[in-house]
Amino acid sequence: MPLALFDLDNTLLAGDSDYLWGQFLVERGIVDGEFYEKENQRFYEQYLEGSLNIMEFLAFQLQPLAAHPHTRLEAWRAEFLQQKIEPILLPAARELVAEHRRRGDTPVIITATNRFITEPIARRYGVEHLIATEPEMIDGEYTGGVSGTPCFREGKVERLQEWLQAHGETLAGSSFYSDSHNDLPLLERVERPVAVDPDERLRQEARRRGWPVTSLRTADA
User: pTM for the complete prediction?
Assistant: First the structure.
């Protein structure tokens, strides 16, 4: 079946779950507020600019997972989903995923954000297949490291190729929806790239290449 690939942050969500997780940690007093908020903002700006060092960011972003037991993290995550994620779920995104499923396509969320944050979000969209950055776990607890290749920029292509091989799938008839110029390496690989509420660099690139541009949150604009 053809694949319908979806970026998550600022595509299926009206916000960035990675950044919001950082905000949640600060607001709950789980991390040093002033330092963490400043670093979280710095990394987010680098992401928007296209200059993010993904390994440096992940060392920062995954450290809180290593500092607390998994059971406590799961309780915090449930709060985070209710407070930060539920308000930015997009009805039009749910419908787009459902539309592809009705066509017989296989929906897949592919995201640079780590699996701990994104797995329950994928479930809320009814998407079984998730390709995400994998936090390393040993004996049921997070180490603060990364398992395998981070699912970012060219790493998204690499991780998708691994997934295709493992599932016996191809990119024939595939679509990919994204908001970010950071996803150009994968957008260039699929048969139908779609820019969704794109950043300015992706908007210009989509216009130049004749790719469709759409919005899943027109009412919010």
Answer: 0.95
